[in-house]
Design a protein that fits this description.
The chain is mainly alpha-helical and 220 residues long. It is built from nine helices and two strands; from the N terminus they run αααβαβααααα. The protein has a two-stranded antiparallel sheet with strand order 1-2. The chain is globular and about 50 Å long.
Length: 220
C-alpha cells in the first residue's frame, strides 16, 4: 500500500506540470489495482486492528501549486485546480478506498484541465471528468471515506462547472445548490475554521455563482 501511496503522490505532480495524458494513463492503471484491493477488503468479514487504529493517522491535502490553484476555466463556473495527495507517517496503513477516492478525483481533474488546455476541445474529456467526479463522490459515500467539507466543496464545484459546460445552466445549478449547502457548513458549522489561502481566494471568486439568481418580474 505504501508503494501505491507514493505512486499517487508522484502522479499528482504530473497534474501540476500539465502532463494530463500521462496522468490519465497512470491513474487509470492505479485505479485497476485499487479497485481490486477495495473488493478484496469488502469481502473480508472484519478488518485487522492495525488498519482500524491507523485510520485517523493520515490526512488528505491539496497539492500547493500556484499554477493549478490560479487556474480559471473558460466557462461560467471556475475550477479549483489543485490535485489531492495523502499525507501520513511512515508505516501507516492507508485504506485502499481512500486511495481510490484520491485517484478518481485526480483523474477527473486531469480530464477537466486537459479539456480547457486543448487547442481543439474534445467534449468527451469533459464528460469523463463529470462522470469521474460522480464516481469519487460515490466512493466517499458508499465506502465511508473520511473527506473534509473543503474537499467535498471543491469536488461539487468542479463537477458543476463540467456539467454546465456540457448540459447547460440547469444542470450546473443543481450542483451549485449542493455546493452552497457545503459552503454554509464550512462557514458556520465546520470545526476547521482556517482554510488554505488558495481555497479562500477560490471561495471569493466562486461565491457569486452560489447565490440564487434574482427573479426579474415582467414589466407591467
Amino acid at each position: 500500500m505504501t508503494s501505491q501511496l507514493d505512486s499517487l503522490t508522484s502522479i499528482a505532480n504530473h497534474i501540476v506540470r500539465g502532463d494530463y495524458d500521462l496522468t490519465i494513463f497512470l491513474l487509470t492503471e492505479s485505479l485497476k489495482t485499487l479497485r481490486a484491493e477495495v473488493v478484496m477488503k469488502m469481502e473480508e468479514e472484519c478488518r485487522s486492528r492495525s488498519a482500524e487504529s491507523s485510520q485517523d493517522m493520515f490526512e488528505i491535502h491539496f497539492v500547493a501549486a500556484a499554477e493549478s490553484s490560479d487556474f480559471r476555466n473558460q466557462g461560467r463556473i471556475p475550477i479549483f485546480g489543485q490535485p489531492l495527495v495523502v499525507r501520513c507517517a511512515l508505516g501507516v496503513i492507508v485504506p485502499p478506498e481512500t486511495l481510490s477516492f484520491v485517484a478518481t478525483y485526480n483523474l477527473a481533474l486531469a480530464y477537466q484541465l486537459k479539456y480547457y488546455h486543448e487547442e481543439i476541445q474534445n467534449v468527451s474529456n469533459l464528460r469523463k471528468a463529470a462522470n469521474l467526479y460522480k464516481c469519487s463522490q460515490e466512493v466517499a459515500c458508499r465506502l465511508s471515506v473520511k473527506i473534509s467539507a473543503i474537499h467535498l466543496f471543491t469536488l461539487v464545484t468542479n463537477m458543476a462547472s463540467a456539467q454546465e459546460a456540457i448540459w447547460g445552466k440547469e444542470e450546473g445549478r443543481l450542483c451549485l445548490d449542493h455546493a452552497l449547502s457545503v459552503y454554509m457548513f464550512m462557514k458556520f458549522g465546520c470545526e476547521e475554521k482556517k482554510l488554505p489561502q488558495s481555497l479562500c481566494c477560490f471561495l471569493w471568486y466562486v461565491f457569486p455563482f452560489l447565490l440564487p439568481e434574482p427573479v426579474i418580474a415582467p414589466a407591467a
